[in-house]
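User: Hello! I'm new to structural biology and keep hearing that structure can be predicted from sequence alone. Could you demonstrate with RDD family protein? Please show me the input and the output so I can see what each looks like.

Assistant: Of course. The first part below is the input, the amino acid sequence of RDD family protein. The second part is the output, the predicted structure written as tokens.
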Amino acid sequence: MSSRVTDAAPSNFPGERLGLPEHGKGSVGRFGRRLAGLFIDWIIAMAVSWLVTRHYGGLYVYPFFAAIQILSIWALGGSIGHRIVGLRLSALPGTQPAFWRPVVRSVLLAIVIPALAWDSDQRGFHDKIAGTVLLRL
């Protein structure tokens, strides 16, 4: 993967500007997979929240969601949901993200708004700020 990213022109396919393949292993994880992974992670966070606090909704879930994201991305290279749907998180140079990247990414993801806007490489603002990209396994 190329470490040089240019924002000058839109790409022909997600990941082209990042030097990634269009399809298959190492390509950018598409919206459907990302959404499925997020749904799985949220269900896990709700279950953990219920076990710990006996609440599974509202603001109770967010700290568990962020903690699960941070720890699993750091330890597994992707959240539990990412791994189940065949994705991994990579830092832009193509390496395992340093610990601060999952922290920043997860906090921004929990805020939701940065995840709702993305560029032509299908990287949400939470990934752009953290310098990460979700790739297919």
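User: So the tokens describe the shape?

Assistant: Right, they're a compact way of writing down the 3D structure. Reading them back into a model, for example: The chain has a mean pLDDT of 86.
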